[in-house]
Amino acid sequence: MWVNSKRLTEDVRRWRAEGWVTPQGEAYILDDLARRGSGLNLASSLGILASVLLGFAVMSFVAAHWQEMSRLVRLSLLVTLIWAGYVTAGAFASRGKQMFADAAILFSVAAFGASIMLISQMFHIDGNPPDAILAWWLGAFLSGVVLRSNPALAFAMVLVAVWTGMKTGDSGHVHWPFLAAWAAITAAFVWHKWQPGTHISAIALAGFVISLGYTLETAAPHLIVAGIGLAAALAAVAVLRLHIGFDAIAAPALGYAIGVLFAALFALQFIENTTTLQLLIYAAATLALLLAAIGYGLSYDHRGALWLGYLGFSVEVLALYWKTVGTILDTSLFFLVAGLIVAGLAFLAWRLAHRFDGSSAHEQGTRA
């Protein structure tokens, strides 16, 4: 798990000052944090980026001198490069430098992918390019699982998205095998208990669901996507309100569900051909969704929902302006009505907050 070490250190010291943590407990926590050293720092981040760049640099050099080498030398060189990365990863892991070990694993994964392309060229294999990506992401996935490398799994998820995009582009249909690949990598993330991986999985799944609006061969595909987003958002809110122990999953899921729902409603308004009445209905639903997201974010300190609401509201208003710019009267009337509604909601929220603060102060005074 990635940890903001500086912030955690400050929190632990504050907890000790408040009496929530004993001095001995503070020392143990800070010592454990220092020994783990698992945070993503600048050195490890640059190490991972460097490994990928070096991997492709080496393979580009090999490709440039490809014709000058015999087939045996070519194959030997490719295998050597791949295993050199894994051996280096083992050396780093044995010294407790896991992030540098991950960087070396990524080097091997990059070399493996480039090897697929070069070997295909060497033996004049005219295959399907998505199949090469399929083999590549499977190799990255196995490396991530066997060697417990989270960055390798993250790279595998990126390759799965590329694989699905290529298959969808070639066929024009939904690439349902994405879900099986997504589930396998997500299960590995959960097994590793790597929280950033769950966000990567959520982003990939949200992108796939949004794409269904453009690839499903059915009537009103964007409405189906909107229904999926709405159902996911309601389910996440229910889990958060019931406090059944899945808040760590439900909280970010709510943000991604709102994103899916907004993307579908945006497509219905500004990509699909809609009548004026349909535009008004969809616009009202979108604004209601975004205001609800803002309200929920403020009430329950859900920053993801709050900022998605603010950003989405800005995008929606600007898009509506450009959509209706030809009818100045309708545009001004719309913004007048929308402004009055939002102002009214702001006043209502202020009154509720003021009443809540007054009630709290009265209860404290009574107890005193």
Task: Explain the overall architecture.
This protein has helices at 5-18, 23-36, 42-64, 71-94, 98-122, 129-146, 150-171, 177-192, 195-215, 221-242, 247-270, 276-300, 303-323, 328-367. The chain is flat, with a radius of gyration of 26 Å. The protein is mainly α and 368 residues long. It starts with a helix and ends with a helix. The model is unreliable at 360-364 (pLDDT under 50). Among the domains are: 1-39, no CATH class; 220-359. Helix 8 (177-192) packs antiparallel against helix 9.
Q: Report the end-to-end length measured between terminal Cα atoms.
A: 44 Å
Amount of beta strand: under 5%
Roughly what is the average pLDDT, rounded to an integer? 81
Shape: flat
Low-pLDDT stretches are 360-364
What share of residues is helical? Answer: over 70%
Order of helices and strands: HHHHHHHHHHHHHH
Sheet with the most strands? Answer: none
What is the number of helices? 14
Structure class: mainly alpha
Overall number of strands = 0
* Rg over CA atoms: 26 Å
